[in-house]
Design brief:
- By secondary structure, this protein is mostly helical.
- Among the domains are: 1-124, Serine Threonine Protein Phosphatase 5, Tetratricopeptide repeat, CATH 1.25.40.10; 279-359, no CATH class.
- Helices cover 68% and strands 0% of the residues.
- It has helices at residues 16-26, 32-40, 44-57, 62-74, 78-91, 96-107, 112-120, 130-141, 145-157, 163-176, 181-195, 200-212, 216-229, 235-247, 251-263, 269-281, 285-299, 303-314, 320-326, 349-355.
- Helix 8 (130-141) packs antiparallel against helix 9, helix 10 (163-176) runs antiparallel to helix 11 and helix 11 (181-195) runs antiparallel to helix 12 (200-212).
- The chain is globular and about 70 Å long.
- 39% of the residues are buried.
């Protein structure tokens, strides 16, 4: 699930002197209020032009930088939005709106730690729940479901509502799976299914609930029916269908179904690594190595890819070139050990654990 840019706060400049100065230059048309009106009417290109002119005339006024950042954000230019939100925040370090915007724009660039830092730095998070919502989203994407649930529930208590909030809560309760979490997740999903029809991520959530209940056939049926109804393969539905096949020990089907997901995305790296892991688990080491090569040719080296390839090489006779691949990650004299599986690799435990999941 990709989070939408939900809330960017817009500040109206009510400083008489600035309005008068801009009015003098632009005949009452291009002042701060007309920039705000352009934002409100969703003419973001016009707003950008207005605020860039305002900044030239009044370079020390933080509201212009903030609102220009809003225009850039709505034009999907997050880099320039971040720059202008930073300037606004620097010029007025007590304004919570500027800090909030700076945090949210980091979230939209998947810079979750930075987003959390700035959102938590707000003296006044507001009463509408949007700060807690965005914090919950940050923690959601960091897989910290406890903190995500805490913040999303606080957002809901303040009256914040929305599809994305419900989807994240549903997923989080499934991840935690304590006490009544499964039932709570089911209730949220039932509400969403009544309101939103034929959405891919709801089909995947329904399948995940079946998996938690050990109802593999129900998960398969849900995903197959959804893909059939849409008359095409769907990326995340195909990826989770592959996971269900893997749980059932149907490796060939899992690999093939991941192939459907790969052709539907511009960034298939994680799916390729999952294919490599599935091949390794089923002792198809050559095919696994082929997938690792495919991954590294495009994305370069990373710990997970290296770890899987080391496991592949450990299970067959090695050439000197293959030994040199492993040596940077293994203890000295590793090839002389009687059991190669006892090798201590200098790869973090969390990466090793993640490698052993077909996600």
């Amino acid at each position: 699930m990709k989070l939408k840019l939900v809330s960017i706060r817009i500040t109206i400049c009510l400083l008489f002197g600035l309005l008068l100065f801009a009015d003098t230059l632009f005949a009452g048309e291009n002042d701060a209020s007309s920039g705000w009106q352009a934002l409100a009417s969703k003419d973001f290109e016009l707003a950008r032009q207005i605020y860039q002119t305002d900044i030239k005339d009044n370079p020390g006024e933080p509201v212009f930088y903030n609102n220009l950042g809003c225009a850039f954000a709505r034009l999907n230019n997050f880099k320039d939005a971040e720059t202008h939100f930073y300037i606004a925040k620097f010029l007025d370090q007590e304004n919570s709106d500027y800090i909030y915007n700076y945090g949210v724009i980091h979230l939209n660039q998947e810079k979750y730690d930075e987003a959390i830092e700035f959102l938590l730095d707000m003296d006044d998070p507001g009463e509408d729940g949007d700060t807690e919502y965005h914090l919950g989203a940050c923690y959601f994407y960091k897989n910290d479901y406890e903190k995500s649930i805490l913040n999303l529930e606080q957002a809901a208590e303040k009256g914040f509502t929305g599809y994305d909030l419900d989807v994240m809560l549903c997923e989080n309760y499934l991840r935690r799976a304590e006490g009544d979490d499964l039932q709570t997740s089911k209730k949220i999903l039932e509400k969403l299914e009544k309101e939103f029809k034929g959405l891919e991520e709801l089909a995947v959530l329904r399948a995940k609930i079946y998996e938690h209940e050990k109802k593999h056939k129900g998960a398969l049926k849900t995903l197959r029916q959804f893909i059939r109804k849409t008359d095409s393969s769907i990326e995340s539905a195909s990826a989770y269908l592959a996971e269900v096949y893997d749980q059932l020990g149907q490796t060939a089907r899992a690999v093939d179904t991941l192939g459907d997901a790969i052709v539907l995305t511009d960034n298939p790296g994680s799916y390729i690594l999952t294919q490599a892991w599935l091949y390794y688990k089923n002792k198809r080491y050559g095919e696994s190595s082929g997938k690792i090569k495919e991954y590294m040719d495009t994305y370069g080296y990373n710990d997970k890819a290296i770890y899987i390839e080391i496991l592949n090489k450990m299970n067959r006779k090695l050439s000197s070139g293959e030994r040199s691949f492993i040596e940077p990650y293994a203890d000295p004299g590793w090839w002389r050990k009687p059991r190669m599986t006892k090798i201590h690799y200098r790869i973090s435990d969390d990466v090793r654990a993640q490698s052993q999941k077909s996600d």
